[in-house]
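task queued by scheduler; priority normal; single chain, no ligands, no partner chains; default sampling; output format set to structure tokens
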Amino acid sequence: MAATATTKLERTVYLVAAPALGWAANLPPHHPLAVAVATAEGAGVAAALAVVAARPKNEGLWLVRLSPLLAAGAVDLAARQIPGWHWDAALAGGWGLLCCALAPLSKTRRRGRPALTPVPEAKALPAAQPEPEQAEEVLDPLDAADAFSAQVRVLWRNAGAAGHTHVAAAHPHVGKPHDLTMLLRSSEQGRPIGGGLTRAAVAAAFAVDEEDVKFLPATAMAGRQSGPGWREVQVVPDERKRRRTAPTEAERWEDEVAVHAIPGSRFIGKKRDEAREVTYWVAQLPDFAGEPRIDPVALARVMGSSHDEGRVFATVDGRRVLVAVWDDSPLSKVYPATRELLTPDENGWWITGYLANGQPALNRVYTDRGAAHGLLVAPSGGGKTQLMALVMAAYANFGAVLWLGTEAPDEKTPLLGAHCDRYGVGALYMVRQLRALIALMEIRGTMLWADGRIHDWDPKVPGCPYRPVHVFQDEFLSAAADGDYGAEISELSAELSVKGRKYGIGEDVAGQSAQVQHGMPSLMLKNIRENGIPTVLKIAPGDVTSTFKDLGVAMEHIPDALPRSFSKEAGGRIERILAGEAEPPSDSNTGGVGWIVPGRKPEVLRTLFADFGKGIDDLFPGEVYRLTDHEIRELEARGLWFDWSLPPQPGEFGDDPDDEDDEEPAPRRGGKSAGRGAITTVDQALAAIRR
């Protein structure tokens, strides 16, 4: 029997499709031809599944018509498993010849006749009876009716419909062939989605990893409901692969920093400063998150550094966080001191050094309460004298009278003493110095200002009759521990810290510790902290917590100990090991590195460098400022203005008995002066010496 035109057309299609089927098996999955063949095969499989699920009356007929696509899918799958192209061509050719012989599409269209049987003579047929309509799935009015949603709906139902859910709609992601978004609703109207809807259940249905599945709440919009009966699910294996290999800055922050280093933070922006060789990252936390919690070790690791390198620092401003990533640690740099930096501005602020985030670290010579105090804490060799030179230069440039007393001499303090009104060594010198300052407060309390009245000291009010005075007590704790004068040094220093600010008299205490039990009166430490800005240079890790607790820093703000070195480790260690060479010496480079405590949170800084080797004269003004003649006369009248380096004078620390008949014993050395017959003037002291 001659073939009909429909049969010829069908066979022509098979002959053309056979080479394409064989070729597609050797192409990459994303090739257009491979995608087209896979789409056709998938459509055939999906249609066959739909027929089997619906079980219509003519189920077998539909399966015969779909057999070319089903067979093509089997050939394609087998060809992709077999290496080489010879078997691919043979299988595709066999498929084409078999389909040409059967021609299932055209031959099954013969009404009422089985395929591949001779056609009997035509007979008169009764009137055609209307065929019953094929049973179709009844969709909800909110369900999408597009082909992609239908295919996903069938796949989801065959996978068990986890959580008793139904696919209301599905949308593919553009440019990502394996990514899609599903909108699921509960199969039972008015009930929430069951607990069986898990990431694992979705991942199993789509043959992906659990990490490739995301659950999102379904938001209400036109044509969509929301609530516990709805859920949006994203299956994104392609997107996650791209995110792992080439993430954006925001994605990198979300996947790494927001998970480990600064939990819950959201990336805002990034800025590069080429001149200063630093990159800034800005992030923010949600309103409900509270103050950011930062893990500095994890943050450094995420930013491609290590905590010991000192290149990564975070600054918190409310809910915002600034992360500075330096090419080289700012704490390893040297910032030369200049007179310009050490000259206070109109508000008394001057630059002590630079913070780890690159900002200038500021200190001040006065506050709104009067003269400022200071506390300098550093271990031996930590840069304490360097820092003291900066503070003294700032006060000198402010126009203050400088007094310096140190418990023991060293190489650098005489160089500082050359710029002071008075300088001396020893606990005896320091207690005399303090006695004079206590008396000076009394003297200044009676000095009239230009308006004829008496005022508390204020640098912004004109007409002050005296200059500010600032006393520096180096190695204060050692002096406070002196057996003869230590008790009085502690007592007078505490009194000066309370009252001195009103008379323009401030004190800076320097030592290796700031702990009360080591000789620092608690009242003195409190007043210095409240009326000054302490600076703590690199102390031992074991002393960090106790030191900052004594300074009133809350436990949550106590910083971690600083690394032993801020210099980068030299590369090529493996080569040196192979060559049997020693490691290069380590440069700690931590002098002048520590913390400044301007408020409740310590800030890491590196102080300016005053080069004693080249000389420090250019940091100070040319003039050394002195007390007024009136103040000196009043101190002389009280017997307190003389060479404080002299040995103890008769009667200075209480009367010594002239003979054994004296009934009253002399006061203990170290007590206050002004006993019976005490010497109060220089003339009386000289007369006592002559006697």
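post-processing summary
- The first strand starts at residue 165 and ends at 173.
- The CA atoms of residues 443 and 634 lie 7 Å apart.
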